[in-house]
Amino acid sequence: MITRLVKLTFVKGREQEFLDIYRASEERIRNFEGCSHLELLRDVHDASVFFTYSHWESEQHLMEYRNSELFRSVWSRVTPLFAAEPQAWSARTADIRQS
Question: Does the N-terminal or the C-terminal CB of the chain have fewer CB atoms within 10 Å?
Answer without folding.
Answer: C
